[in-house]
Design a protein that fits this description.
Two copies of one chain form a homodimer. The first copy, chain A, has six helices and ten strands. Chain A is of the alpha+beta class. The radius of gyration of chain A is 20 Å and the shape is elongated. The interface between A and B is large, with 46 and 47 residues. Chains A, B: Pathway: tRNA modification; wybutosine-tRNA(Phe) biosynthesis.
């Protein structure tokens, strides 16, 4: 327990790439909600983004990957066209939905997040248990990554030559924006579900967890979706190397 | 322990949708390798596939999704063109890489799979712990899903109208085939890594796991990739409802 608290304090104190820039609006709120509890420590995250990447090199290995465009909100056809004019290799348009990583003190804490994430539509969410963590060990550090299958990956240029029409780009941008809206609805669902689940769970900071505290809010594992529209309002730049997935390297610990 | 063994016997005995058809070649070999061990029970899997889907309905909810084409090997432009002629809604071309689900008796078994999966390039792999599984419970049933980010999702038609040229389809098919080749290389890497890791681990069927048996094969968590080319040779049809991800419902247990 003390080890986790120490580690959390260190992480939150240090300047780290995903904190140089203001967190995306939704991720920031979720971070506040979770970091207020002892059992969670948020790590890298992204509300969702549209990217235009230019890749040189043969095959499908990501060699010399350059970012021509990144936006965390609505994307606009003209911006995409402008970005593509700068492409010299194989340009790809990508929509990446919400990604959220959380270090959890106990496996059951990760399970709580996982349950809410899946209910919210983030079906690819999963738990990673650090190599130091064995089931017999008290408080293994676990890691919950919230992910979705709800993406786009569209090759657009080949050796600098645009392979689609402007009309297609307009069509694609429209679809990406729809996906972003649905993505935001899911994040909102996740946030609400998390609030309920945390209130209903045994509070992490009580000394004697004899049983769940009485609460009027009960999180019920539900399949039905609520739909609340909300628009993301981010303005953050991410460098290519700030790949949220690289946070799995956190487990390369002594 | 006995509960897991019983559950495994039941699963492997019953006819289940993903077994109606011959398992993809690679998945079948991996299943043989893992099911020979007490601690693992393979579930749904797919070597990887190219799909052309037709979806009707507004927005991005998957309403009335029809499969126009599915292939688990090399895809051919003419087949894609033929499939698209049948589209009446919004057709999408998808490449989905290797997906592999394994029920594990212990968390450490899932961790072993996870480690090998990530080393093999399947970076989106994760562990799910069933709701019945608490950290204090002996032998929680955990679930390792092997996944990758290495996909394509490309809208091609809008209300039945093709939005790209035949040349673009050719370009896309070429990219999909390259991704499938890389996918197969990763599966092979995963298989080899798994063989080493299983040999090095404490054998699951010994009664007294005092320590790792001496072995000449030692699995070292490695970052370098080996590249072995191998062609998938599958012939399996999957219905839309046979979504490997729906196997997460396995955890809706009493």
């Amino acid at each position: 327990m003390a080890a986790f608290a120490r580690r959390k304090a260190e992480r939150l104190a240090r300047p780290d790439p995903s904190r140089k820039r203001a967190l995306d609006a939704h991720a920031a709120e979720l971070a506040r909600l979770l970091n207020a509890r002892e059992t969670f420590c948020t790590a890298s995250s992204c509300d969702g983004r549209v990217l235009v990447l230019d890749t040189d090199g043969a095959g499908i290995q990501k060699k010399n990957c350059r970012w021509l465009l990144v936006t965390h909100g609505t994307c606009v056809k003209d911006d995409v066209m402008t970005a593509l004019e700068k492409a010299t290799g194989d340009a790809v348009f990508k929509f990446e939905p919400f990604v959220f990583h959380v270090l959890c003190r106990e496996l059951q804490d990760a399970q709580l997040l996982h349950s809410v994430a899946v209910d919210s539509g983030f079906r690819n969410s999963g738990i990673t248990v650090g190599r130091g963590g064995k089931i017999t060990m008290i408080n293994p550090v676990v890691f919950q990554a919230v992910r979705s299958t709800h993406c786009l990956e569209v090759p657009l240029s080949h050796k600098g030559r645009l392979m689609v029409s402007e009309e297609y780009i307009d069509f694609l941008v429209h679809i990406a924006n729809q996906k972003m809206e649905e993505n935001i609805r899911r994040i909102d669902r996740f946030h609400k579900g998390l609030e309920l689940a945390l209130e209903a769970a045994i509070p992490a900071d009580t000394l004697a967890p004899e049983g769940p505290e009485k609460s009027h809010s009960v999180y019920v594992h539900r399949r039905k979706r609520r739909s609340t529209r909300e628009q993301a309002d981010p303005s953050r730049e991410m460098e290519p190397q700030d790949d949220p997935e690289s946070s799995l390297d956190l487990f390369a610990e002594p």
